[in-house]
């Protein structure tokens, strides 16, 4: 770690390691950092012994971020958003301190449900939309909404959904390659593939893809090739031809249709989504159990796991990057993926 970092929240210079102690082995959620120039570690605040998560990002360009924009992100507080607590910054690194979330990914919880109905799905989906609505009200676009960034606050049955990395790309947008934002093409809106435009309607498309997966267990484009995938996204192909859709209500499909619209201004916004009778619960079926959808979701989660592993291997093949004393190419410590 550098000797001193600036904590934007207090504008005081303090050594990171004097405040937080990183934790090594954290069990099942541990993973090895790769050569991408970033990692996440659990940490303990020395004074209080509270556990937090530290995300370390290596900048691709030297310099510091505008303290005013960071101050806005530090003020964000919503039950469906993983809260950013503090920011340490040097000319080459960012250290983001987040609340520590103990629950698993939302999609992993969905696999365990005995009551996989539209009403249950709508309850989880509504929480995602609430978190996204809050971000959009502050003028913040997530830009990387995907299953891996949807986690549960705890392992309790009544745990709430939280969106992670809500501020990450707003920190790094000027420093990140466009390919990083497109790394999950299936969640990319058509306009990104043509004009690279970023606004809140981009998140709405990803929201529609997520709901599509929750309702039928697969994305709209599986098992298309890359060229077929790009063409399908640009043309707005939405066929509902998966057998699982036979058990899904018209209202459920209507929300997906309203979000997966090629023309960005025509997509349902978060307020409209929350008012939709299917999302609000006014016209949401409590049965049947969507067995085929849940079974297909098992396969989707497995494909995502394999895809993430391949992506991680590609990144780890890059030259090693030494970050704050941790060399990601030699002896990495065990870290957690938050």
UniProtKB/TrEMBL annotation:
PROSITE patterns: PROTEIN_KINASE_DOM
Matches recorded under InterPro entries: Kinase-like_dom_sf (IPR011009), Prot_kinase_dom (IPR000719)
Organism: Opisthorchis felineus
GO molecular function: ATP binding; protein kinase activity
Pfam families, A to Z: Pkinase
Signal sequence interval, chain numbering: none
Superkingdom per UniProt: Eukaryota
Residues in Protein kinase domain copies: 20-279
Record protein name field: Protein kinase domain-containing protein
